[in-house]
Design brief:
This protein is an alpha/beta fold. It contains six helices and seven strands. The chain has a seven-stranded mixed β-sheet, with helices on both faces. Helix 2 (about 70-75) links the parallel strand 2 and strand 3 (about 80-85).
Length: about 200
């Protein structure tokens, strides 16, 4: 662990049918997709809490800030709950990273391939570089950590496209920042992603 343990932030919607993981609905239905979303959030928060102390973890909520899932996770793990601010994804990610002093990291709540060991590795590597990222197979990324605020990494990024990672890496290079990419991960967006996770011999 580095001398200063980074804070870890997660962004998560409340699991409301028709508003969470709707791309899974052709396979699971709207209710099933919402339940799948809740399962992913539980899994990712549990992995985060295996890697870092709960006081170093904040779950940023959306849609219904007092949803029973969020209360359950706070009571089970002791994580802090905060409401996501308005704004696009880049603005919300940057707000979360800047909400705590010192180095900070943020991960998606739909990335079961980000294990507790991988989170610990990212925390360790962030002690030696300005940026740590876990690229995703779809051209985005599922995890980012920074030593301080770098607005250019989050402004004007084509969120939701296959250009997210490439554009961000161009910004990192332009700023002359040192970056580490410990692993490539995948997230759960499509029915085949869900089947991939459920097809694993043991959930990661």
């Amino acid at each position: 662990m580095p001398a200063e343990t980074p804070h870890l932030h997660l962004l998560a919607k409340a699991p409301l049918p028709g508003q969470a993981k709707t791309r899974l609905s052709p396979l699971l239905g709207l209710e099933g997709a919402a339940n799948a979303h809740a399962e992913l959030v539980r899994h990712c928060v549990a992995n985060a809490c295996k890697a870092l102390p709960a006081e170093k973890i904040t779950l940023w909520t959306a849609l219904d800030h007092t949803h029973p899932l969020f209360i359950e996770l706070r009571e089970a793990f002791g994580v802090t709950l905060s409401a996501q601010p308005e704004g696009n994804l880049g603005a919300r990610v940057r707000h979360a990273l800047n909400s705590t002093p010192g180095p900070a990291m943020l991960m998606g709540s739909d990335c079961p391939s980000i294990t507790s060991a991988l989170i610990a590795t990212c925390a360790q590597q962030l002690a030696n570089v300005e940026v740590v990222m876990l690229p995703a197979e779809d051209g985005g990324y599922g995890f980012v950590g920074t030593q301080q605020d770098y607005p250019a990494l989050f402004e004007g990024i084509p969120w939701g496209t296959q250009r997210v990672l490439a554009t961000t890496q161009q910004r990192i290079e332009a700023l002359g920042l040192r970056a580490a990419y410990p692993a490539t991960i995948w997230d759960v967006d499509r029915p085949e992603d869900w089947q991939r996770w459920k097809g694993l011999p043991v959930s990661m």
